[in-house]
Amino acid sequence: MTVVGNPRSWSCQWLPILILLLGTGHGPGVEGVTHYKAGDPVILYVNKVGPYHNPQETYHYYQLPVCCPEKIRHKSLSLGEVLDGDRMAESLYEIRFRENVEKRILCHMQLSSAQVEQLRQAIEELYYFEFVVDDLPIRGFVGYMEESGFLPHSHKIGLWTHLDFHLEFHGDRIIFANVSVRDVKPHSLDGLRPDEFLGLTHTYSVRWSETSVERRSDRRRGDDGGFFPRTLEIHWLSIINS
């Protein structure tokens, strides 16, 4: 990145203004609470992906070969959200308030060997994704990696092609959102020939449940909510990955 002028003098001059402007962003449970009626559409935005051990390194979710609309519609963001690295865009997921969905097809894909390799590298670097539902962040991992044995050594890479969304509501408001792959088997990305294409079908499920909790968490999207490890844990995770 090229910085014009003296970085130190620039930061000293503009830092107070940036701090003030960052306060204009809002997070879940703070502003903009949406009220729904049964059957109302609930927009799921895709946001960003990046290596789990370095949460500051993020990219737009659609930079990966994933299910993507023909025309990408980005969400209008506040300055604070932009500086936080948010890149929200509408997704293909169709979610309606209090309506369960059982294994609906999101899209069919034909991936080239280069696209498969791109996904393999992302999974090997422990890429996570972040989606946003009603201003609530939901995070998960792009795929699954398994290392076992020493001699012989096995290295398996799998892509999650099905996501289970769990949303909790109280009255006409969404209180909690989460994504899970607990009962899902990853699709293997191993053994593909250079001239071979990989056919994939991405699917998803949505499960709604009522909760007695009346207020959602007041944490902002910039908070990880315990998803990311602390500094010491990141250090040991890097050693284990090595």
TrEMBL record:
It is found in: Cytoplasmic vesicle, Autophagosome membrane; Lysosome membrane. One of its GO terms (cellular component) is autophagosome membrane. Keywords: Membrane, Signal, Transmembrane, Transmembrane helix. It holds the Pfam family EMP70. InterPro entries: EMP70 (IPR004240). Belongs to the nonaspanin (TM9SF) (TC 9.A.2) family. Plays an essential role in autophagy. This is Transmembrane 9 superfamily member. It comes from Homo sapiens (Human). The lineage of its organism: Eukaryota, Metazoa, Chordata, Craniata, Vertebrata.
